[in-house]
Amino acid sequence: MQRLRAIMKKELLHIIRDVRSLTIIFLLPLIMLVLYGYAIRLDLKNIPLAVWDADNSQESRELIRAFTHSGYFTLTLHAITPVDPLEVFQERRAKSVLAIPVDYGARLHDGRAIPVQFLSDASESNTATIAGQYAEQIILSRLMSRFGTDAPLPDVRALVLFNPELESKVFVVPGLVAILFMMICALMTSITIAREKETGTLEQILVSPVRTAEIIIGKLFPYMFLASLIGVVVILIAIFWFGAPFVGSPLLLAVFSIVYLLCSLAIGILISTRVRTVQVAMMAALVITMLPSIMLSGFVFPIASMPLPIRILTHIVPARYFLVIIRGIMLKDASLYLLRFQILPLCILTFILLVVSIRRFRTTLE
Amino acid sequence: MFVLGAHRANDETGDAMSILIDDIHKTYGAQGALAGVTLSIREGERFGLIGPDGAGKSSLMRILCGLIRADRGSFTLCGLDGNRDLRAIKSSIGYMPQRFSLYPDLTVAENLRFFADLFTVPRRERDERLERLYRFSRLKPFAARRAAALSGGMKQKLALSCALIHTPRVLILDEPTTGVDPVSRREFWDILSELSRDGTTILVSTPYMDEAARCDRIAFIHHGRLLAVDTPAGIPGRFPLTILEFRGRRFPVRHDDMLRVRGVASVRLLGDRLRVACESREAVERAVRDMLERSGAEILSVRTDTPSIEDTFVHLMHEEPGHV
After folding, report:
1. Which of A74, A151, B12, B189 would be a feasible disulfide site paired with A46, CB 3.0-4.6 Å?
2. Cβ of A23 under 8 Å from any chain B Cβ?
């Protein structure tokens, strides 16, 4: 106990004394949060829209107004004469084209099916898909407001729950928390041990009767504390700045965050057992944690759409599980039971990593 | 006299063995191999390890500390088996690695307290020992200063203090005074003398011959083998030859041709002095003198000299079988 306490205290002193690193460790998540929260938006606002309004009736103008008032579209071209969508897209005057037929007003009156055409520039497939969904929603709501529930026929398929406005920050920000946890924890622990190797202080510790577990646990705790602090700050910013919802149990999230943090810290230790310098430790920690956590966790690309070998590979990416856990708890009030297939593998993964990292940690210099 | 390590009391004979090393072998990396080292060091002895870089000094010390494992062979330390009781051994050793390796961002006091806790020194005793260590190291006024801001000599004294915090029975010091100014070096060795008087066994490596002379016994290690173990006074007695010292200017740097002169064993150039180890003065003086003068050197004086520790070691190094 005396040894464990001594190592924890010493590690805390290192953390507090190194103001520059501490600042970076706190700033990095904030910068990333702002970058991802603002710049990388999966939802779209002000999609440039060209309209060919062949009808030019009161009804057609109402439909156009519904598009512009939604905030999703900005009218860049409004013509009564035919518009060539290819030309519009090529000249990048708009990303979507709405074509309203001559008899739009008349058909609406008669309650007949209305062939409104909506075209999108699919060279940006994401934008195209989302614009199409927005358009469908707008047209549907127009018809609903006019005819009530027995509105005639636009064929609307997408049903969006939990994020009705398809606002990406709602799921980007919690996902970001998962990635930041992983990155910072692995970075911090791998650096702390690599630095002791580099400066030779590890040699001085290893000649004492200290146990491996005491060194590792003594190092884990202060960083766990720091990581939790960062986690709380990041989640608070996600809620109060980005307006991310939090409908689930904070306690449940706290418990699983701790498991996930342990997992990330263990990865950092595992890295540090293999490297000799701080530089290499940093690079390794970033590459090993960042890329898989972003690419293979379902954060950006849905896992279901990955080829089978990659899909299998995602099972060893801890962020994959935590992503579902944190989104589930924050957005959907998911229960322990509903998350059991995420929680169980995450616990197993954490346990294996901790055991392996402690066993691989050598008390000799070879 | 302040008692830093009070071990003397339980040892009346003064002849108990503190470290017994038996036929230790180690190959690792490209250098620093040990090829069968056998050695015994008495309790309270100051034992010096001398040898060129890569001879195996650090390897031997690291094996005793449990930092690396020997391929073959065994050792006991304070009666504890090196293969089985490593944790107990670690508790009885104070080790100072070659490189200053305390925490630069911690203060002097924090470093000392950290190592006290690491060796589970009871809190009550800790402060008392801290005071004693402050007294001998004179670091008290700097207790609140970060280790990074200490001078070289003070850093060494802090490192020694940290190694002594748990009153180890054996102190292992790997070139503790390299890069330290001469005054601090002398001070450091005064402290070591005092420690050994109190019964602490000291195994120390050093590149300085004046420091070797302050040891009770020294061993010369080369290519992982012990070439000679003796008292500093006894070592030159193992030198079977005469030293012929030429003083002068413009001595040639290479002396391969001189080694071909019959009777010349080895040649060393030390600034303006050329020391030639030879069977007898008469046999070689003429030939060497001619050779030097032909190469443009100017000889001012020639005399025979008593061999130094260094001369002996250089000679032994050349005598060693398998020497290239």
Report:
1. A74
2. no
Question: Does A2 contact B117 at a Cβ distance shorter than 8 Å?
Answer: yes
- Chain A residues closer than 8 Å to B62 by CB: 365
Residue pairs between chains A and B whose CB atoms are closer than 8 Å: 74
A18 touches chain B (CB under 8 A): yes
Please tell me the class of the B8-232 domain: alpha beta
Contacts of B142 (CB under 8 A, 6+ apart): B108, B150, B154
Interface of B with A in 99-138 (CB under 8 A): 99-106, 110, 113-115, 117-120
Q: How remote is the C-alpha of B46 from its chain's centroid?
A: 10
Q: What is the DSSP string of A43-54?
A: S-S-EEEEEEES
Give the residue on A whose Cα is nearest the Cα of B61: A207
Distance (Å, whole) CA A319 – CA A257: 11
DSSP classification of residue B215: S
Q: Which helix (H) or strand (E) holds B84?
A: none
B262 touches chain A (CB under 8 A): no
User: B240-306 has which CATH code?
Assistant: 3.30.70
**Half-sphere exposure at residue B202, Cβ-oriented, CA atoms within 13 angstroms:** 33
Alpha-helical (H) ranges within A91-124 are 104-110
Name the phi and psi angles at A2, rounded to 5. Answer: -60, -40
Three-state secondary structure call for residue A21 = helix
Please report the DSSP string for A347-358 in residue order.
HHHHHHHHHHHH
At A361, phi and psi to the nearest 5? -70, 120
Residues with pLDDT less than 70, chain B: 1-15, 29-32, 320-324
**Mutating which of A18, A208, A365 best tests the B interface, going by the most B Cβ atoms within 10 A?**
A208
Q: Compute the half-sphere exposure of residue A41: CA atoms within 13 Å on the CB side of its CA.
A: 11
Q: Which residue of B has its CA nearest to A2?
A: B117
The model's pLDDT over A226-257, given as tens digits with 9 standing for 90+, comes to 888 888 888 888 788 877 788 889 999 999 99
pLDDT in tens, B238-266: 888 888 899 988 888 787 788 888 888 88
* Domains of chain A, first to last: 2-40+168-360 (no CATH), 47-150 (3.40.1710.10)
Domain spans, chain B: 8-232, 240-306
Q: Cβ contact (<8 Å) for A205 and B118? A: yes
Q: Is B88 in the A-facing interface, judged by CB distances under 8 Å?
A: yes
Q: State the Rg of chain B over Cα.
A: 23
Q: Do B90 and A207 touch (CB under 8 A)?
A: yes
Q: Residue B321 has what pLDDT?
A: 61
Note whether A206 contacts B: Cβ–Cβ < 8 A.
yes
CB B42 within 8 A of CB B201: yes
